[in-house]
Specification:
Blueprint lengths: L7 H12 L3 H14 L4 E7 L5 E6 L6 H7 L25 H8 L1 E7 L6 E7 L2 E2 L3 E3 L4 E7 L15 H18 L4 E6 L2 E6 L7 H10 L1 H5 L1 E8 L2 E8 L4 E2 L5 E5 L2 E3 L2 H10 L9 E2 L1 E6 L5 E2 L10 E2 L2 H18 L7 H4 L22 H7 L12 E3 L4 H4 L5 E6 L3 E6 L2 E6 H18 L5 E11 L2 H9 L1 H5 L4 E4 L4 E8 L7 H13 L7 H15 L10 H13 L13 E5 H7 L4
Parallel strand pairs: 1-8, 13-16
Antiparallel strand pairs: 1-2, 2-7, 3-4, 3-7, 4-5, 4-6, 8-9, 10-11, 11-16, 12-15, 13-14, 17-18, 19-20, 20-21, 21-22, 22-26, 23-25, 24-25
Helix pairs in contact: 1-4, 2-5, 5-6, 8-9, 13-17, 13-18, 14-16, 16-17
């Protein structure tokens, strides 16, 4: 088959396929154009998930008649001062968005520049351009796209339902709104209720916008993140480890104001939280990386969602160190009640019907009968005791009771604290092991009679291959035949442990390790597993002095707000919270 030159219409449609994947792609390109034009208010309206209508209106600088005529031509852009593609300081720069949209749908642009006596308008339908004509518009630019993909109908079959496409549009607008808290965004459409995110200025603007976009729970459980290294800066907010998610969809990352999904950045976040979260939990955060435009290449993907750093190690190290510093600063803080919702409040209190009977019990007896639900279950135990007055003023208060032989209830000056004794002690033991590793290693205790643990041959091989690493934790093992391991020494600080359960868990974790996993991370996984097995178990009855000792240790050790699996170690209820639960305020 001979080589031939493709027609302009086909070239435009190919370009449209690269840039315009779905309605949300159109919204992203047009909103980015509005931001680059200096808009302080952007209104987004969609219909049919964006396939029937997309309208973006802004109050930016607008375009002159000559610029408007050129804007719909391929590879025409106002975003580059020269031809240096290593100095991109705008969100859009390729010059393909508008002609690609016009090649796939019916595009109309109406714009007014301050130097023009009135507005101008141009239309593009399936790649065919109309003449520029006078129009009416007060200020800025209005871009309307109808019947998206009518010229490329094969694309329509790949679109989801209107609601799904509408939610994708919402996510795109939300990400861009998060990057620019100074700009007011309005999003409306038949698929959703209208929402407005008002622009703000000042130090609290970013957190306020994140609260608007991600919800009040994120704002209540977010910690500030900041750092700088060799000209690269990071800022933003990260959720407490106890405010974690089941996937990474709540991780919002920005590079020079551009929303991205970059593997290097996501990997850095994972590394920073590795000491706080298990592998199946993900933090919620919004981080903004700023560096010189020449240090990052944003021209590696047609949709501009991926970037490449000149010095990836610098950026990764900056993110990891800034996140770790922020998490250590808030180490003793647990997530709010709103994040976990352990308590609920009915809309209307239930009142048991009461019909007085002649000769029956009095009102007091009937009211009391509501609480007479029979003898308590055998496994329910509540033991209360008087608090030590000097301890009530401490951050975690004075122990008052143990409930279900699992939870410690402590009284504070202005409320109460409920502690999960196993989760709390697990974190304490973990931090002790880490401290011991940094110094002389974990002390060992010799077993009078070695314990023989039977395992699969593969598990035995994994454990014996890591025997040197395990020795650093005070666990000395040796192979004992083809399918068993002999445990000769165990960590002293764990006391008496179930060696068989511990080794099975360690072998299971090692089976999931990537060979490229750094030694430090492998050691921390071992420490976390050992800490879990060496902690006070749920169901163990504690004495008052033991409970108070646990509270004091929690106040002293770092990261005590969550256990090694990212769950909260305690929940605090202020008197105001309790009064709201009972409708007192």
């Amino acid at each position: 088959m001979p080589v031939r030159q493709l027609s302009e219409a086909v070239v435009n449609r190919i370009a449209a396929g690269e840039v315009i994947e779905r309605p949300a792609s159109v919204v992203k390109e047009l909103v980015e154009n509005a931001l680059d034009a200096g808009a302080r208010r952007i209104d987004v309206l969609t219909d049919g998930g964006g396939r029937r209508l997309i309208r973006i209106t802004d109050d930016g600088a607008g375009m002159t008649r000559a610029d408007l005529a050129l804007a719909v031509e391929r590879h025409a852009t106002s975003k580059l001062d020269d031809e240096d593609l290593l100095a991109i300081r705008t969100l859009g720069f390729r010059g393909e968005a508008l002609p690609s949209i016009g090649a796939a749908g019916r595009l109309t642009i109406t714009t007014r520049h301050a130097s023009e006596p009135h507005a101008w308008s141009i239309g593009v339908e399936g790649g065919a351009k109309s003449a520029v004509r006078p129009a009416a518009l007060a200020q800025g630019t209005s871009v309307e796209v109808r019947d998206l993909f009518y010229a490329t109908p094969a694309r329509l079959k790949f679109l989801k339902t209107d609601r799904t496409e509408g939610e994708t549009v919402r996510d795109v607008v939300r990400r861009l709104a998060m990057s620019r808290p100074d700009v007011t965004f309005t999003l409306a459409g038949e698929e959703r209720a209208p929402v407005t995110w008002n622009g703000r200025e000042g130090d609290e603007a970013q957190l306020a916008r994140l609260g608007d976009a991600l919800g009040s729970d994120f704002r209540a459980n977010a910690i500030a993140v900041s750092g700088e290294r060799e000209g690269a800066r990071i800022s933003g907010y990260a959720g407490l480890p106890t405010y974690s998610k089941a996937n990474s969809l709540s991780q919002y990352l920005f590079v020079n104001g551009r929303p991205v999904r970059d593997k290097l950045l996501l990997g850095a976040v994972r590394a920073a939280y590795a000491d706080y979260l298990p592998r199946d939990r993900y933090p919620a955060l919004a981080l903004f990386v700023t560096l010189d435009a020449r240090e990052v290449d944003v021209n590696v993907h047609p949709a501009k969602t991926e970037v490449r750093f000149r010095d990836g190690g610098l950026v990764r190290g900056l993110i990891v160190s800034a996140l770790k510093l922020a998490l250590q600063r808030e180490a003793g803080r647990a997530a709010t009640i709103a994040a976990f919702r352990p308590l609920g409040q009915p809309r209307r209190p239930y009142v048991a019907p009461y019909a007085p009977q002649r000769g029956g019990p009095g009102l007091a007896e009937v009211a009391q009968a509501v609480f007479d639900t029979g003898a308590p279950a055998a496994d329910v135990r509540v033991e209360t005791f008087a608090p030590q007055p000097d301890l009530i003023a401490r951050p975690l208060g004075a122990a008052r009771a143990q409930i279900h032989e699992t939870y410690i209830v402590a009284q504070t000056t202005d409320g109460l604290v409920i502690v999960d004794q196993h989760a709390a002690h697990e974190r304490i033991v973990y931090e002790r092991m880490k401290a011991a590793l940094d110094k002389t290693g974990v002390a060992r205790q010799i077993l009078l009679i070695p314990e023989i643990v039977e395992l699969d041959a593969a598990d035995v091989a994994r454990l014996t291959a890591r025997a040197g690493e395990l020795t650093r934790f005070g666990l000395l093992i040796e192979p004992f035949g083809p399918g068993a391991v002999a445990v000769r020494e165990t960590p002293s600080l764990l006391g008496e442990i179930d060696a068989q359960a511990l080794l099975r868990d360690l072998a299971e974790h090692m089976a999931e390790w990537d060979e490229a996993l750094p030694l430090e991370r492998r050691l921390m996984y071992v420490a976390a597993t050992m800490a879990c097995h060496g902690s006070v178990r749920a169901g163990r009855r504690l004495k008052p002095e033991e409970m108070n000792a646990l509270l004091r240790e929690m106040e002293a050790v770092p990261n005590s707000g969550q256990c090694n699996h990212g769950r909260p170690t305690y929940v605090e209820l202020k008197l105001g919270d309790i009064e709201r639960l009972f409708g007192r305020r």
